[in-house]
Design brief:
The chain has 476 residues and is an alpha/beta fold. It has 14 helices and 21 strands. The protein is globular. It starts with a helix and ends with a strand. The chain binds uridine 5'-triphosphate.
Amino acid sequence: MQKNVTEYKQIFEKAGQSHVFKFWDDLDNERREQLLERVAQVDIDELSSLCKIHLFNHEAQSLDLEGLSPAPYIPHPQNGGDQVQWHEAHARGVEALKANRFAAFVVAGGQGTRLGFDGPKGTFPTTPIRKATLFQVFAEKIVFANQTYGCDIPWFIMTSEINHSATVAFFQEHNYFGLKPERVICFRQGLMPAVDLNGKIIMEDKHLISMSPDGHGGSLRALVRSGAVEQMEKEGRDIISYFQVDNPLVKFIDPAFIGFHLSSGSQMSSKMLPKANAKEKVGNFCVQRGKICVIEYSDLPDVLALETDASGKLRYIAASVGIHILDRKFVKEAGGSGTALSLPFHRAHKKIQTIDAKGSIVKPSEPNGYKFEMFVFDAIPFAKNAVVVETRREDDFSPVKNATGVDSAESTHDDLLREYARWLKAADVPIETDATGLPKIKLEISQKFASDQSSFVKRWKSLANKPAIVDGLIIA
Ligand code: UTP
């Protein structure tokens, strides 16, 4: 039951956060309601304990790296993996897709600050010619899989308070890109208040607590709280394909990956790819005390990051790129309330809008506070039989993080073109490329036409009238 303002004032005062109500008397009714709405979303005990751990207890901040070693993984066939094993895994994955055990799940609640795009990141135009948005690309992949495997994949989309309405409106405007509206399920993730360097809640205005999404790790809680897990249970779906909204290359309906997940009896499986260099800004798959875990690049000491084996290959080679399969029962366990399995929060030092003593808005030029986030990969050590499977960067990973440069709209655009060129070459179509595999002409292959190289080759070869390969060609 919702508490009244007097009760909230007492609770916040006891927690040393009475300033949240400092301007209460100045607020009109609408603003008072807005303040109470946010106040009701704050778990004050959780916040107090986070401040204790992350702001005031310096010992607890040093990461435990004892006994760390590189994680084992199933190598890709082109890197020494067993062809027969991959073939069997693929067949098993296809069977699971046909049996309707699969659900797609994208986390799209982030703020996308680095990209600086006005709107949900999923609405960012990404393909070279059609300028199909990230959401459209993923929708087309689902349409293709539904046709190929005769299944009916539901697509769960985690949004946040900041972009939920815009996301839902976008799908409505575009008729769900050919999917049934009831099979596209958007739900909001949780929010966490931001605090200043002394652990005081930051007010972004007199009536607004500064709140931000609780990280992609918040997805486990949100999947349970939103009823998504319950819906999957009713439909008999136990394989949840987790991916991130900024990566149009991701093969999130990947039969071999599903097959390895199932044959290992894994509760949380991950794709890995070899790091581009020792210091690449990605998480590292490791093993600690017999459990697979991910150590962030910033936490892996140089002495380990730079370590090589006898052949000169990096020992900590396995990069985590935010592609997982989650077992539904595991999510229910991990994301349920009062569970023993709670993910840790991490703090991020950020510039956060605040107010001065008189209540005027201040936009800081330097980081002035902390946001708290959970990371989904922190669930891996809790999972039974967690397995890591190698993929190739060019097949699965090219995120749009920044406006320009590395991992940007530009690099993703070129990586998509390289993928189309590779697929065409594999189908024996002559296409001129530069040394990096970038075609000299612009073209595009719709995800409704093919989902990967082998499906492209098969479909292309079956075409009676093949289009000429010219600049501006769209294969759809
Ligand atoms: P990033 O860590 O790249 O964050 O998210 P971001 O918010 O998209 O971008 P920046 O850091 O502000 O520039 C990786 C994935 O996790 C999702 C994002 O939407 C993206 O798909 N995410 C992140 C959430 O869904 N919720 C969050 O709270 C954070």
